[in-house]
Automatic annotation (TrEMBL):
UniProt xrefs under Pfam families: YndJ
Transmembrane segments: 6-23, 56-76, 88-106, 118-143, 150-171, 177-195, 207-229, 241-262
Keyword annotations of the record: Membrane, Transmembrane, Transmembrane helix
Protein name according to UniProt: YndJ-like protein
InterPro entries (UniProt xref): YndJ-like
Length: 275
């Protein structure tokens, strides 16, 4: 199971984060994206080494890179002096990789941070690259693309749900369930907006958008069943199956396909602009 988790996290570090950064405008974002492999490659290598000083050092390099992303968010907030739905989603996307990286450093150190097991910390690394960075960044792109109230609601509820889920790690399963409900609502709004956007897209982009949106319908139901099953006696998939279904589908079906679709949409929009 952990091998699969590490593969998903490697995708997040090497592909999802830099691809996402290429789709948003923020001061310093281009420079950070250009230098991102300097942090991401050590982070990925640390996943595949045994726990110890070398993997801790490499994971710490990745942590520094993620803190630079968080600094971009702080700098943008200071310069804008406002916090709208787009900024809420964007800043959440830029901040959550640091949570993942902190969990990675702790896990590589064999340190049960805040009492969480090493397995939970490994899953936290994956969670905050995809349910954190990718989900919030796509919500940001959605609200940039339309002024519809559903897009605004998505850009607020996705970060809010992510934050409540994080609190649930500390406050208990009922809080985590509440976060899963809010996050699911936000992600379904994201999916709805992407599906509507697909109707005017060319064929390959349409396929990517529909695949990304459709994936969310299934994976978020799995997330809800998992969270609900830890509060009341309802069935849910074992952890290894959640990784193989919810985790892999979100990484490939939602995040990768979704970001590739948005890149194609932006390229198409730029090609239509007058010279």
């Amino acid at each position: 199971m952990l091998t699969l988790v590490h593969l998903v996290v490697s995708l997040g570090m090497l592909v999802i984060v830099p691809l996402g950064l290429s789709l948003v405008k923020i001061d310093g974002g281009t420079t950070v994206r250009r230098w991102w492999p300097v942090a991401a490659v050590p982070g990925v290598i640390s996943l595949w080494l045994g726990r110890g000083p070398l993997s801790i050092t490499l994971a710490s390099i990745y942590l520094v890179g993620t803190l630079v992303l968080a600094l971009l968010a702080a700098n943008d907030l200071i310069s804008r002096k406002r916090l709208r739905a787009r900024e809420i989603a964007l800043y959440t996307a830029l901040a959550t990789p640091a949570i993942a990286a902190l969990a990675l450093v702790a896990e590589r150190s064999s340190y049960e941070l805040f009492g969480f097991s090493l397995t939970v910390l490994s899953l936290t690394v994956a969670h905050f690259h995809f349910a954190g960075f990718a989900a919030a960044l796509v919500a940001c792109l959605v609200v940039e693309s339309t002024s519809a109230k559903t897009a605004t609601a998505a850009a607020i509820s996705v970060p809010l749900g992510t934050g409540i889920v994080l609190l649930g790690f500390f406050l208990g399963d009922p809080v985590e369930l509440a976060g899963a409900v809010v996050l699911t609502a936000g992600m379904w709004l994201v999916g709805w907006t992407m599906w509507r956007r697909s109707r005017a897209a060319e064929r390959s982009t349409k396929v990517l958008l529909i695949l990304s949106a459709g994936t969310l319908m299934v994976t978020m139901l799995l997330a809800l069943s998992w969270a609900l099953g830890h509060v009341v006696a309802t069935p849910y998939l074992p952890l290894r199956w959640m990784v193989a279904t919810h985790g892999v589908a979100n990484a490939l079906g939602f995040a990768l396909c979704g970001l590739l679709a948005w890149r194609r949409l932006k390229e198409w929009d730029e090609a239509r602009r007058p010279a």
